[in-house]
Structure formats: structure tokens, C-alpha cells
Amino acid sequence: MNNNCCVFNVWLTKSVRLLYIGILFFFLCVPITVSADLTGRIAYSVRGFNEQLGRFDYNLQMTTFTEDGDFKTRSLNQPGLYGVWSPEDDILYFIQRVDTQSHIFSININNPRQKTQLTAIGGTYRFLSISPNGKKLAYNGYTEDQQQQENQIWVMDLDSGVTEPVTAIPHFGRTFFFYGMSWGPLSKKIAFALERPGGLEQLFLLDIETKEIEVLTEFNIDFYPVWTPDGQEILFRRWDREFDTMYTINVETRGLTPLFDIDKNASMWSDWSFDSQSIIYSLWGSFYLYDRNAGKTEKLFEVDGGIFGISWWKHEVLDVEAKQKLTTTWGDVKRTLR
Predict the structure, then answer these.
(1) What percent of the chain has pLDDT over 70?
(2) How distant is the alpha carbon of residue 108 from its chain centre?
(3) What's the confidence (pLDDT) of residue 253?
(4) Which CATH number belongs to the domain containing residue 182 in this structure?
């Protein structure tokens, strides 16, 4: 009887010990979300009435997210589109229409009324994207001396001002359009969407050094690619008859992951968080945040007018050391997901 009790006590002790080990292993292996106390800011354009021009125009604005979760928005007092942040400082690049042509400008947000013109010749320019090292700007378009069919991707060296086309896509006398571009994290490749015959927009990868172009997606209508900061995936929007769907494509495996659906008629722009785990996007005049870990969306705030373009400042990279966790999440926007 005593031996049986001893055996039972030994068995119970081992069982409790194994249970504790199992619980400890569970908490060590399950991802724990940890918010980082950082602030961030986004730049975007809002359609509104420009009193100086006497007509409706797109005006640049900036919203800063504070540590207590508030949103502080101010106008940058400049009309413009396709704003993108320099990753190194307070410089914002954008495209502004001057008379009948457009030019690329830059401003320092600490003195936004003073702007610097970067393009030597006017033209029709769209979809700015800056290299992660902050040294080059990519955009598409054609100069005032060219025809619309000569629309190509151009790259400007910001130190020297030298600008050159990096694509030579044949047009065969037909006008074609680019639908978004995004520079890869290593500053070596650009993802872009291009309209092709048959009404299809496909995603492509451009190697800046070799000028080679690689097909990413085919036989669909895919547009507005946005590369993740970690370089592993590209976010894009896929058209469908009933609704549009936001997808990611893995750059290496080419595997597709659907994220969420949106109204196909909605004006929508997006950008990634620093850690590639959250997406901030706009629908008409409202901003939303999609959390990939939770698979949920929350509405952040509204502006008075239609939103055009979003650029999240990528200079502040999450600096969080692992503390018995496998993942960290974006802490710049603190809201309870619903």
C-alpha cells in the first residue's frame, strides 16, 4: 500500500513537471504581439478647392500618429500628387502640374512653402517611388518633346540630377499606361503594373542594372503594387467582376495570398507598416488599418475630401529586441481592433 502511494506520488510529480514544461513551451512558441512605442507619419493628397487657382485641386497633407493614439493633421500648403518620403530626412517628393506640364518637386516639411524643382523639362509624369537608400527616384511618363506612346519608366539620380529611361517597352503605335510602381528594399528592382493589349494589367519586375523585365502575374487585372519593407512580398489589387481583392505575392515562390475584399469602384491607396505586418489604406476620404496577424480592419480617421496616394515614412525602423516572443507588431497606430 505504501509502495503504491509512493509510486503514485512519483507519477504525479512527474506529471505536474511535464505539465509545467508543456505550458512553458506553449507560451514560448505562441507568437505574442508587442507594441513598440514609436511615432510615425503619412503624406497624402486630398482633393479640395484651391483658392489661389480658383478650382478644385489635390493638396498635400500630412498626418502624424502620436504615442497617445491621437491623429495630428496639417496641410503642407502645396498642390501635388504621388507624394513619397525620403527615407533619410524630412524631405517629401511629389509631382505638381505647372501650366500645361507637370514637374517633380521636393519640399522640406519644416518649411513646406519653399519647393525645389527637380525635373529640367516638363512632361506628363506619374507614380513616384524612391529607392530605399534615398538616392534615386523612379517615375513613369513622357516629356513635352515626346508623344504619349513613348511612355516609359525613368530613374533620376538625386545627387547629380541625371535622369534616364530604364525601360524601352515597344508601343507599336498604341498608347499604354502604367498603374503603379514600387521600389524593392535592396534598391535593385522595381515592381510595376502595366496595361497590355486585351485590357489586362499585369505585374512585372524590373532589374535596374540589367534592364531585364520579368513577369510576376499573368492573365488577370493586377495593379498598384507596393513592396513590403522586408522585401519578401508585394501587395497589389486584383480586379474581379463583383469586387476587388487585395493580395500579396511572395517574390521568391510566387505564391498568392488573398487578404481582404474592397468595393471595386472605390478609390483606394495603400502602404505598409515598418514591420510588414500591417497595411494602412484609404477608401475615398477615410483611412483604415488592416492587421495581418489578426486578419481584422479598423477605421482610423476621415479627411474632408477624396484621398489620393499614401506614403508612410520608412526611416524609423522598429528597434525591438526579442523578449520571449517570436513576432512584433506595428505600434505607431494604437487602436483596439474590432
Answers:
(1) 79
(2) 21
(3) 95
(4) 2.120.10.30
Summarised one tens digit per residue, pLDDT across range 217-226 is: 988 999 999 9
Q: Which domain holds residue 257?
A: 37-312
- pLDDT at residue 50, rounded to an integer: 67
In this structure, the answer to whether residues 93 and 136 fall within a common structural domain is: yes
Residues 93 and 175 in one domain: yes
User: Can you give the chain as a three-state secondary structure string?
Assistant: CHHHHHHHHHHHHHHHHHHHHHHHHHHHHCCCCCECCCCEEEEEEEEEEECCCCEEEEEEEEEEECCCCCEEEEEEEEECEEEEECCCCCEEEEEEEECCEEEEEEEECCCCCCEEECCCCCEEEEEEEECCCCCEEEEEEEECCCCHHHCEEEEEECCCCCEEECCCCCCCCCCCCEEEEEECCCCCEEEEEEEECCCEEEEEEEECCCCCEEECCCCCCEEEEEECCCCCEEEEEECCCCCEEEEEEECCCCCEEEEEEECCCCCEEEEECCCCCEEEEEECCEEEEEECCCCEEEEEEECCCCEEEEEECCCCCCCCCCCCCCCCECCCCCCCCC
Place of cell 528594399: 185
Q: How many domains does the chain have?
A: 2
Same domain, 108 and 229: yes
Residue 336 lies in a domain: no
On whether both 152 and 181 belong to a single domain, the answer is yes
Same domain, 100 and 151: yes
The torsion of the CA quartet 178, 184, 189, 193, rounded to 10 degrees, works out to -20
Clarify whether residues 16 and 46 are in a common domain: no
Are 111 and 11 members of one domain?
no
- Please indicate, yes or no, if residue 301 is contained in any of the structural domains: yes
Residues of the chain with pLDDT under 50: 1-38, 316-338
